[in-house]
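Is this the right way to post structure tokens for a design question? Let me know if I should format differently. Anyway, here goes:
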């Protein structure tokens, strides 16, 4: 089985100079638009996600990459968007996700899910039956 090539588009935060473009093209073959703010490349990987990670790993230190996106949709008609967030934004998103997950589990899921130890009833149903 052969691994596919994935067409990826790279959006840059600034225009590249000719020397920067040549340096990056030594790592991966690149095609640039007229002002070198958008690049296209093919990356050999099993999945689009792996291709975007591989691209960011290989070119992230050489280029001012803003966004990496797959150029063609996958079989589910989805386009992958790979964005590097600043550390503070990443930490804030992680904290918000952790709080939302905790609130869901403690505020709804644990109260409504069926517990085998309660005769496959929710805690609310069990407490209502116990009080009656």
């Amino acid at each position: 089985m052969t691994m596919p090539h994935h067409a990826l588009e790279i959006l840059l935060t600034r225009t590249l100079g000719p020397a920067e473009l040549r340096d990056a093209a030594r790592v991966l073959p690149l095609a640039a638009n007229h002002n070198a703010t958008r690049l296209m490349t093919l990356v050999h990987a099993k999945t689009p996600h792996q291709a975007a990670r591989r691209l960011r790993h290989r070119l992230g230190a050489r280029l001012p990459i803003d966004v990496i996106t797959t150029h063609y949709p996958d079989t589910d008609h989805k386009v992958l968007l790979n964005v590097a967030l600043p550390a503070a934004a990443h930490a804030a998103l992680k904290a918000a996700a952790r709080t939302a997950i905790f609130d869901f589990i403690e505020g709804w899921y644990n109260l409504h899910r069926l517990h085998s130890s309660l005769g496959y009833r929710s805690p609310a149903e069990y407490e209502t039956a116990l009080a009656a």
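Format looks fine. Someone answered above. Worth noting: The helical segments are 18-25, 48-59, 87-112, 123-131. The chain has four helices and five strands.
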